[in-house]
Amino acid sequence: MNSQICCGSNTCNPIYMQIDILSCMRHPNMVLLLGACLEYGILIYEYMANGSLEDCLFKKKKKNKRVLSWQLRFRIAAKIGTRLLFLHQTKPEPLVHRDLKPGNILLDQNYVSKISDVGLARLVPAVAENVTQCCMTSATETFCYIDPKYQQTGMLGVKSDVYSLGIIFLQLLTGRAPMGLAHHAEESIEKDSFVQMLDLSITDWPLEQALCLAKIAVKCAELRRKDRLDLAKLVFPELDKLRDFAEQNMTMTMTMPIILGCTAPSPSHSEPSVQQVRTFISF
User: Fold this and answer.
1) Which residue, 3, 124, 138, 220, has fewest beta-carbon neighbours within 10 Å?
2) pLDDT digits (tens, 9 = 90+) for 14-42
3) Can 99 be counted among the known catalytic residues?
4) What are the backbone dihedrals phi and psi of residue 178, each rounded to the nearest 5 degrees, phi first?
5) Active-site residue among 20, 55, 99, 227?
């Protein structure tokens, strides 16, 4: 059977939690649950041919396999944002993923991204507009992607996911480890040198658009929740523009091979000047 098998933990019955959540919602960018074996704590998901985003960004690069083009990275960023917004707009209460990271973003044979592992997700009560939160007793997610406010207080909200999203966006752009990434990216943007942080395995970055995504990412990864961007009002519209731009420039990339350090040129893309590179969107 072409299926991805994930084993659950006994802590807080994550198997039952995932089944409960996945069985009552469907979305094109959510990994489909095909079945489960409760006796052995196994969940069976649809097969995702290209593994996880973590594999593609880090492990495959080391093996000189295909490198994700900037077009695919922009499209992946937009798909993740779409999926996260869907979770956050769940009724009657928002659903916070709580464990968003490259290892939980899976890619199919066409590099279409889907979010997996909702075992740690939580439905949280809306106590006030833009202040949706609840108190959790432990933080079991990967440290570098966890909202600092959540680490300090155990208070979980939709903007906890927004923080994780910002770190992932920066990794899509730089191909770097998450530790201290937001801080270094913010400094480089202030010094007009973010271009030096871009993943060198891609030689044809659209610099103006890459910097646009970088600034969005840094704003999403602000330490204080109130300073982070609103996903629906500010982040999603910009991601939509970046996805459209990527798809307009995707034809040649999808028909030509991509090897480490060599990407196919875009048919309609021209590199901006250094002066254009210094143009950022403002929020």
Assistant:
1) 138
2) 667 667 766 666 666 678 878 888 888 77
3) yes
4) -75, -20
5) 99
